[in-house]
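User: Some background: our group keeps a shared notebook of sequences we're curious about, and every so often someone picks one and asks for a predicted structure to add to the entry. Today it's my turn. The entry only has the sequence so far, pasted here. Could you supply the structure so I can complete it?
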Amino acid sequence: MNDATFLGSDEARPAGRLPGDPTPEELVHRIIRVDHAGEYGAVRIYAGQLAVLGHTDKAPLLEHMAEQEKGHLDTFSRLVVERGVRPTVMLPLWHVAGYVLGATTALLGPRAAMACTVAVEEAIDEHYRDQAAALGEDERELRETIERFRAEELEHRDIGLAHEAELAPAYRLLSAVIKAGCRLAIRISERV
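Assistant: Of course. Here's the predicted structure to add to the notebook entry:
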């Protein structure tokens, strides 16, 4: 290796990539890791909501969304194995946190549960949009999967809005707190 390569010169770095930027492989691993964690958390949120609201008229909606999230999780679980991606070490925390978030919002009522769905899905929409934009043609299949899942997440958001999420007590505050939590969980799960 010459000194220019050792020092990380422009000659040794692909165009457009800055020092400290992940390699394409590292980027894909981060995407799969964080999406696996996010879908795991979503499954746990719906488990918590169904534990509280499973006997109400909202149960079929929650079950529909939970089934789609389980399908997303199954896909990312498979990709973790196929691509040799290390899952986030935060899964035990997301296991508890997701369930608690789901159950707590459901205990506040069906509108609060729907507000939780809207907030989570709006954060995920941004996240998936950015991921799809970052993936090149060499990762077309992964990008198409993310775009398909993004469309389903937006369907969940729309279901929440149609079921009076915005009428939940302290909707704006609840939404802001949940979105901030999602964004923090995303940043942590990408790396840890």
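Suggested note for the entry: The chain has a mean pLDDT of 92. The chain has seven helices and no strands.
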